Amino acid sequence: MPNTLFCFGTGFSARLVARKLRAEGWDIAGTTRSPDKFDALRAEGITPYQFDNDMPVANIAKALQGVTHVLVSTPPGGYGDPVLAHHRADLAALPAQTWIGYLSTTGVYGDRNGGVVDEDDDLLPSGKRGRRRVAAEKAWFDLGQRHDLCVQSFRLAGIYGPGRNALETVRSGRARRIVKEGQVFSRIHVEDIARTVLAAIARPHAGAAYNVCDDDAAPPQDVIAYACGLLGLDPPVEEPFETATLSPMAASFYEDNKRVDNSKIKRELGVELCYRDYQAGLQTLLDDILRKSKGITGEN
Per the database record, which ranges form the NAD-dependent epimerase/dehydratase domain (predicted)? Predict the structure, then answer.
């Protein structure tokens, strides 16, 4: 019998994991908030189910029958983790050592004033979203310990990839260069998220948490400037963070300033990153855009 993955949330990162495992012969099922997306999931060989904060999966026993692995990418809300809120007992009934991967964020570490954090550091989240993530991680690990399930957490840095990157931001005219002195962010290409999750599935370690980021934490304004250079465009003028007009959500991303250590995924999981820094990632994304453009116009 093939392995079977069930995804609670089949978005940008989880969907790529699902595609890669599907290519290896796995059976895949996953949730979406809207039935309008069912056909798109079926086209990729994913059996679709509807799930939302206020809507549990119908006939969850059937949905989880034969499942060997679970991947959770749904974010927690003010009420806690939605999957556990609706389906804690159903997951607790899975066979012993069933693998469960939880996609968390590096926001659990909070602000370190530019310092380095690794998985052994205390979790000191700065804002509401970070605190919710810490609570959700704790709840998932607790589920694993209580019911002999192999729960692992993946603390993801800022995610980018095809259709979701600085090149697209520049091309859409939405790019800004907000400068906050000493501010750096860690990032990760979605391809390397999938690579890390697959490596963890191959080397399961109950209770493990992994930082998933590239090797180069960098100021956000530098990434925009590099993307502009690749596209042959002048970068937007720099705006001091202190006087920039930002939404509360956008401003919240500047609350935390840290460099995230990714050595554990290399040491324990043997991960070799496809894109060690944003320059390599953006260059490859641009090459893909140009290649597709030539294909559309019939050029060789």
Answer: 102-213
**236 located within any domain:** no
Distance from CA of residue 215 to its chain's centroid? Answer: 16
Give the per-residue pLDDT at 294.
79
State how far the Cα of 244 lies from the Cα of 250, in Å rounded to an integer: 11
Domain limits for position 101: 4-158+188-213+261-275
> CA 210 to CA 221: how far, in whole Å?
27
> Rounded to an integer, what distance in angstroms lies between the CA atom of residue 143 and that of residue 88?
8
Measure CA 245 to chain center.
27
Cα of 58 vs its chain's centroid, Å? 26
Q: Is 229 contained in some domain?
A: no
Does residue 68 lie within any of the structural domains? yes
In this structure, what CATH number is given to the domain that contains residue 271? Answer: 3.40.50.720
Q: How far apart are CA 43 and CA 49, in angstroms?
A: 14
What pTM value is reported for the model? 0.96
Question: How does residue 296 score in pLDDT terms, banded at 50, 70 and 90?
Answer: low
pLDDT per residue as tens digits for the range 35-89: 999 999 999 999 999 999 999 999 999 999 999 999 999 999 988 999 999 999 9
**Count: domains in the chain:** 1
